[in-house]
């Protein structure tokens, strides 16, 4: 796509065919805790390093021309972690959201949140809504970053089902007209293409409730690299693997 400025990072995507990039990449940012433990640091230091990696990778995706990036930052199950860790992650998110608010317009991004924002600390929720409102007012083609916050894929499907059901009761939708395409409009990802490639670092081989509806035909890529050590070079490896796959979508 011509509008992406690849000149900013001439080394971007070395070895990768820039004309066959996935449109949408999803990443489960895993391994922060183990990264910290290996260094004798508190787990929160791992999350701080992971948040820096998030920034690097988001800009890299923008620079090479991947239009959509979705990252799993905090799941509906992550509340089970010790209160200090949860609060450290929330503080980090607040810090980076402040940065998003300041730089989104200038740097060619648009942000959206997937997940149920209601249970978040009010200040953080306020920042999310402010960022989404700002994003909605931005014009032009931009790199879309979706941050999954208090997100669970089953929860997303249930919220969508409830919203659709309310529309049926109000007479604005009919049960017989429900299709894949109609239902997709009620999901957090409405209006966006499904992820083509989902990456999970840190050696775990599962999707953990990340985009179960949208990942039906996604290519999966797993690597042992821990998220704080994840670099544009590792993303290139994932992109090369993706470009070597044959996608048939159920056909031959
Ligand atoms: C998983 O690693 C990571 C998380 C649950 C939190 C991810 C949060 C961030 C990267 C910080 C802020 C995010 C943004 C978007 C600015 P883990 O703790 O499960 O690692 P482990 O499996 O090694 O214990």
In words, what does this structure look like?
This protein has about 250 residues and is of the alpha/beta class. It has seven helices and six strands. The chain has a six-stranded parallel beta sheet, with helices on both faces. Strand 3 (about 110-115), helix 4 and strand 4 form a beta-alpha-beta unit. Helix 1 (about 30-40) packs across helix 2 and helix 3 packs parallel to helix 4 (about 120-135). The longest helix is centred in the middle third of the chain and has 25 residues, at about 85-105. The chain is globular, with a radius of gyration of 18 Å. Mean pLDDT is about 95; it is low at about 1-10. Bound molecules: farnesyl diphosphate. Farnesyl diphosphate binds near residues 74 and 147. Farnesyl diphosphate (FPP) binds next to helix 1, helix 2, strand 2 and helix 3.
Give the secondary structure arrangement, pairings included.
Layout: E1 24-28, H1 32-38, H2 43-64, E2 68-75, H3 83-107, E3 109-114, H4 122-136, E4 143-151, H5 153-169, H6 180-184, E5 197-200, E6 219-222, H7 232-243
Parallel strand pairs: 1-2, 1-5, 2-4, 3-4, 5-6
The structure holds farnesyl diphosphate.
The secondary-structure element order is EHHEHEHEHHEEH
Largest beta-sheet details? 6 strands, parallel
Rg result? 18 Å
Strand order in space, largest sheet: 3-4-2-1-5-6
Query: Helix coverage percent of residues?
Result: 40-55%
Number of helices: 7
What's the total count of β strands? Answer: 6
Small molecules held by this entry: farnesyl diphosphate
Pairing-aware structural class of the strands and helices?
alpha/beta
Uncertain residue ranges: 1-8
**Mean pLDDT, as a whole number?**
94
Note the gap between the termini: 28 Å
**Shape, per Cα inertia axes:** globular
The percent range for strand residues is 5-15%
